[in-house]
Specification:
The protein is an alpha/beta fold. The protein contains 9 helices and 7 strands; from the N terminus they run E-H-E-H-H-H-E-H-E-H-E-H-E-H-E-H. The chain binds zinc ion.
Length: 266
Amino acid sequence: MLKVVSHEGYLARYPTGAVETPARIRAILGNLKGHYALVVPEPASTEDLLRAHTVDHLIQVQLEGKAVKDAAALAAGGALCAARRALTDGHPYFAAVRPPGHHAGRNRFGGFCFFNNMAIALLALFDHGTARRAAVIDFDMHRGDGTAEIFHGDPRVSFLDVSSAEKDGFVQRIESFLEGLPPVDIIGVSAGFDMHVKDWGGLLTNQDYHRIGRLIGNAARRLASGRVFAVLEGGYMPHDLGKAVLAFCKGLEGKDLIEPTHAARP
Ligand SMILES: [Zn+2]
């Protein structure tokens, strides 16, 4: 059984790029409604944020205004909540958060990202000793450069960053990474959907996202006692984003993708 972490604060308006809109979350929740139970997170604490970022970075984000700082801390809290719950329950969690996080480095932000949600979640688990090893799979169209920077040289994290540079064999790269992965305590997924056929990347169908979910879900049951959490990154066409997230979630929990049929029914 998969659960969804979300909060009405993810529907807030704050100064960011024109495409990073509340409609993204509204579309996701509209599609997931009736399929999954919702869990409401708390904002990340300053202590949580400082595991991944410098004090100066926190000040810089604060200077973007209270709306930005509050939204970003709440998104990080959503990732943290999903990671903690997945670790305890041994079930998948999907954190439908905004703003996204994978471009935020220790001391820099950009690309609609302010705090690195994934890094904040995993570093909290490491710090509390509840997890010692993790795998991170980033399948957003763009490089997870912030995540790569924060975990650079960190032996606790195996990081796979598939991005638009690898249009051929995109799904196969995830498959072979998972085949070679040793057991870990938890798998984190930076789930960006901007490689969708109807989004900027123009490559992956809902069936592809379902297959990616299934591959990761199977690996999590085999290698991580079912502990897997995904955190929303990109995906900018709300209508298609909502459907792609549902396809991914169905795959992650090992269920079939039921697409609406066009056949006439009596
Ligand atoms: Zn992206």
